[in-house]
Amino acid sequence: MKLDPISKYAAAGTKLRLNRFSQNLRHAAEHPGDPKAIHDLRVAIRRTEQACKTFRELFDPASVKKLRWRLHRLMELCAAVRNCDVALILLDQAGVTTGASVSRLKKTRAAAAKKLSRRLAKERLKRPPEPAPRSHPKEGEWKLDQSLESNLCRLLPGLADEWFAAGKAAIPAQASYQALHRFRLQAKRFRYALELFEGFYGNEIARAAGVLKELQDRLGAINDCVATITILGRDRRAVAAVSRLLRQRKAALQTYARSQFVPKKLDWWKRWLAQPAPRAA
């Protein structure tokens, strides 16, 4: 089947992310006790999922559904391990290194790691299915009678608008942790979507990625505290210690975010994203 240029680009970009996912999966299977290996696998899963979402109109829905189900199941098992790792690290940073919560987390982590290790051993023997291109791509966001550059010029500035709207809602001191969580997910999706088209944006892509990663890290640090407090339950000593970290991290985020979410910054993002350059061969 002969593909149009945009579907061809989508298939190639998604395949690259599947290859990276396979590499990270094998590494995690070999080192299931390494928190970094688990983190890297989670990131590879998210990048693959974003490729499927970005190009969803161009792929056969059944093949995408099959792939995303496998990725989702694996992500759940990874999350169970990583949540324990994060909680133990936070408690250590807060000065809580002993006690019932620490012992319980270590036991929970060991059980979750066994389940994940079994799943990784099975998954590493399977080649993840590549989403099949549609024989007749669905016309929607992607206009197949236009160049990829024209599509990016039209679509990506809108992603910047969505990201800024989520950011402005999360900046106020009274913003809920649910708003911060939505903002974190939006930042991830925006960053991983931009990565799919980095060849069109030259050196400025590093600047943009740096801003998004900084926000992701700050938002992730807050989310880690919120998740850990939920895990700790009624352990008042441990909850109080993590809550202090949470307040500090939220205040630091608000200071940083106020410098980023101003009209002139949004203007830069939209102007830059509306000017993709022809990709180097």
Mind explaining what this structure looks like?
- There is one protein chain.
- The longest helix is centred in the first third of the chain and has 33 residues, at 61-93.
- It contains nine helices and no strands.
- The mean pLDDT is 87.
- The protein has two domains: 1-131, Up-down Bundle (Four Helix Bundle (Hemerythrin (Met), subunit A)), CATH 1.20.120; 150-281.
- The chain has helices at 5-30, 35-54, 61-93, 100-123, 148-170, 177-195, 204-232, 236-260, 263-273.
- Helix 1 (5-30) runs antiparallel to helix 2, helix 2 packs across helix 6 and helix 5 packs antiparallel against helix 9.
CA-based shape: flat
Oligomer: single chain
- Class computed from helices, strands and strand pairing: mainly alpha
The largest pleated sheet is described as:
none
Uncertain segments: none
Mean pLDDT, nearest integer? Answer: 87
Q: Give the count of structural domains.
A: 2
**Series of secondary-structure elements, N-terminal to C-terminal:** HHHHHHHHH
β-strand percent reads under 5%
DSSP helix count?
9
List the helices and strands and how they pair.
Layout: H1 5-30, H2 35-54, H3 61-93, H4 100-123, H5 148-170, H6 177-195, H7 204-232, H8 236-260, H9 263-273
Helix pairs in contact: 1-2, 1-4, 2-3, 2-6, 3-4, 3-7, 5-6, 5-9, 6-7, 7-8
Give a quick set of tags describing it.
281 residues; mainly alpha; Four Helix Bundle (Hemerythrin (Met), subunit A); 2 domains; flat
Give a brief description:
By secondary structure, this protein is an all-alpha fold.
